[in-house]
Hints:
Distance between the termini: 32 Å
Number of domains: 2
Amino acid sequence: MNEPRRIIDLRSDTVTLPSPEMRRAMAEAAVGDDVFGEDPTVRRLEAMAAERTAKEAGLYVASGTMSNLVAIMTHCGRGDEAIVGSESHIIQHEVASAAGVAGVQLRTVANGPRGGIDPRKMEGLIRGENVHNPRTSLLCLENTHNRRSGAAIPFEDIQELAEVAHGRGLRVHIDGARFFNAALALGTSVAALAAPADSIGFCLSKGLGAPVGSVLCGTAEFIGRARKNRKMLGGGMRQAGIIAAAGVYALEHMVDRLAEDHANARILAQGLAALPMIDLEAESIDSNIVIFGVRGDVAGFVRAVKQEGVLTTSPGPGKVRMVTHYGIDRGDVEDALQRVQHAAAALA
């Protein structure tokens, strides 16, 4: 009897599974009550994250969405306004939490094809003092940019935007869900790339392979206030060292291997770009996310490749997304390309 065909899951790097070594670290973690500040593994993870980002302190939170929400709540007062990119994760995929929970209005500035923001357009959205206006308190950036095919935003662009924002009295937060991917793609350090920002959050549960969690980093004063907002959101976890240990392991062992994901994404992109029904510039891929256009029925394409055992998502009209990650090796990518070619031929 033939064994079932292996599923190649390219929907997201959130589907990674912890390695046996990571599971062992979790099982053996020293723990305590984190709300009392007594969990040594959580404290270690937060200190490691602060050191990597060159910020004073870190705060372990449940998710990237919680990281962004806590940052917005801490930087802004109720009724304030934050400027975000029009295609940012904060406004596209976080259930309007800034408005619904934090009471902060979001104002959008257009993201360019590579995720960038025009500093002049951003500055034009900063409100002047007027009895009718909300106070513009925060600029939120994203790096890598999820909906722009994982594009890495260069340091110079972040610095220019931060200088404009700081000059007008705003704080700057970076949604760095895949920030380690960004630093790798740009050939720089996480600390150097994060330097212009007042706060940055990064995910452990994506390319770094941990099962849960993100860390928000900033000044000690900011993190002190953020810790209280985390508690308000129900994020005060107790013996959280069991899951924080996965984050410690990820920072120690899973960062360098991100290069494999980037290399596999380029191979994937090159193979896809060769198919007549696919619209993709393979050389534009910076990191581990490949978003491409499909000429024809996108839903039919997604169904056809799923029937071939390749899982994908559609991030928007006419678009398909594939993401390389831990658990997907070069052989899987080459196999996936063969299956996609077969599906495309059947559709044609």
